[in-house]
Amino acid sequence: MNSMRASALEIISQTADEAAVFKPAGLSCERAAGDRGDSLLQRARAALHWDDCQLPHRLDRPTRGVMMIARDRAVVAHHCEEIRQGAWEKWYFARIPLRARDVDAHTLVGEHRAYLKREGKLARVVRSGGDPSRLTVLGVAATRDPTHDPTHDPTHDSSREAHALIRLDTGRFHQIRVMLASLGFPLIGDDAYGGEGWPDGFDLESVALRIKRAQGDLVFRLPVHAARHGVAPELEATLTQILSAR
Predict the structure, then answer these.
(1) What is the pTM of this model?
(2) How far apart, in whole angstroms, are the C-alpha atoms of residue 221 and residue 210?
(3) Where is pLDDT greater, at 202 or 33?
(4) Would you list the domain boundaries of the chain?
(5) pLDDT score, position 4
(6) What is the pLDDT of residue 103?
């Protein structure tokens, strides 16, 4: 696989049939028919010269991170079958409160299950009748010293914040956002689910993707970049250890 950078699309890795790319926050994955607005899919078609390329998965518009692009419908069908069989593993960094209602965020570490139901543009946790959903919080660490952050806003107190490293075990609509909110730790700035305190919207990053294949695993990880700030080194090290394991 080759790594390259296009003016409108950051390509992490590419083969003849698929590409791992970086979706920035604020960019829609795709647009409705007839909408000529900017989108990740539109950029991919222009940069990769794949007129029929498809998306096997999606990220919310405010979320940034790793995404796969399939060259055509046959490749996306293969991707979807891999996802159905559980061959894709995804990890996220999420910015959350360090404490909520006198509970420390470190208590989130472990597996969490819920039933989720989509209602319009939001989702909610229900007792029954929803989609079974699961995620695992692998680690929590306080946000690093904000004075070391080049984007530091002195009017914003990030000393009360933390980052969680999350493995997404199922891929439901707004899953991380609604499940963390139901646990009392909504994403900082995610006002749709009760988050407060982050003027630029919530901070959620799909940081790594592993695809298990018979010929060997494919691992795509975003390096440290300008949009990621405040993540403690120990969380980066934990992710490195996980991705190195076979």
Answers:
(1) 0.90
(2) 9
(3) 202
(4) 1-85, 89-246
(5) 41
(6) 93
